[in-house]
Task: structure prediction
Amino acid sequence: MKETSRPAAFNGGFKDAIASATSRAGRTARQAWPLAVLATLMLVLAVPAAFVVAPGFIGPEPPAAAPATPAWQLPPATLSARQGLSPLADSAPVPLPSAVTAQLDAVLKPDGGGSFAGFVQDALTGDVLFDRGGSENRIPASNMKLFTAVAALRALGPDHRFSTRVLAGPDPNHVVLTGGGDVLLGAGKSVPDDVMGHAGLATLAAATVTALQANGTTGELTVMVDDSLFSGPALNPAWADGDVEAGEMAPLFPLALNSARYNPAVTTGPRPQDSAVAAAEAFAGQLKTAGAAAGITVAAGVGRLPAPEAVSETAGSAILAEVQSATLGEQVGLMLESSDNYLAETLGRMAAAAAGEPASNDGASAAVRAHLAELGIATDTMRFADVSGLAIGNQASARQLADVVRAVTTGTDQRLRAALDGFPVAGLTGTLEARYEDGATSRGAGLVRAKTGTLNTVISLSGYVVDADGRLLVFSFIGNGLKPGAAGNREAVDRAAATLAACGCR
Result:
């Protein structure tokens, strides 16, 4: 079958129609393009606008879920096991004396002359583990302060506080600053959290003004000082002039600022030679400042009441104001940790005063000896030139010192435990802070706790340590006749104590 042919007119009209339609579509498209662009632009702008406007219609967006707390920030479900040393047990093995002796003999050697004595005991049983001349009299240096510490704690009790008072004077316009044994007074306000400066003269002055106002007192006041509590020489003749000139000691009075230092942060160099008057002058300055608004003025200078007058005329006087020291236990701790000679001598005198004896050097020595005897420590061979250990005339044995440490650590008199915090910790506190830092002694760092002692030819160290098996040991090492300044002598006692700390001596 052949295809049917179409007329030419039809073919031409179809083409024209197509062309015409195409032309109209092009014109329509060209006319619609700007409208499409505009619509697209409006859509682009409308989307972010919707995010801004939408919350007004649909409410605030719900908060995002909080991130999960890391496990390490969660509170513990159970407590961790206790860390540190376990409680001491009687069942811990006692070191063998032969093993202890072998180890200590190897390290306790003088450097350039002299000799070392030593004594080590098991604290619980008293078993002697090492004894090299332990009963021989030696110059103990500042280890004497251990004797003074226990005497003061026994005589007064660890909670005792010393009072510094202002009394109405013999004259209506006199006030009397009365020393009661606190030589750690601060010049400013009382600082309850401190031992040095616990009682402040500014606080005492403010309280005095309040009392004077209540009494209707105005006008000019004169400050007097009563330091009659102490008797005997203010400077012990047994102390070397060079030590006093170097600031190791100063004349003793029953009140002082900063343990008779100009600045509590400076513990060397010159010291006030009359700490009672120095304290009274500081008090007068604070009284002048506090009294200015109350119409009270203060005369220049201070006076001292003669001892008989102080006792008779102020004994019944009204107390205007009073501040109290840190506790005796805290003062003993400071005395041992910093090896404070002035404070040690003061505490010895206060122990004598507590027994009704003269608060003098002789009274202090007698009081310390008496309390040691009551503890069962043999004192017949001891010699007391002072109670701080500064004097070269003191004599005591390593055994007597170890016995005192044993009484503090494990004895039946619980009052003595207050001294434990004052023992310097090797490498960390007090006079042992800068020691136990080298390879020969570092194993004792943080473990050895001991009172130090140093004079020109003397090195001593007495204290306690828990050995590697958990046994509490007390010890005393004393070197006499040593070469002055030889570094090996101090290292010898430090190595000996560190040896005990590492000892599993079985």
User: Anything to note?
Assistant: The two ends are 129 Å apart (CA to CA). The CA atoms of residues 63 and 202 lie 58 Å apart.
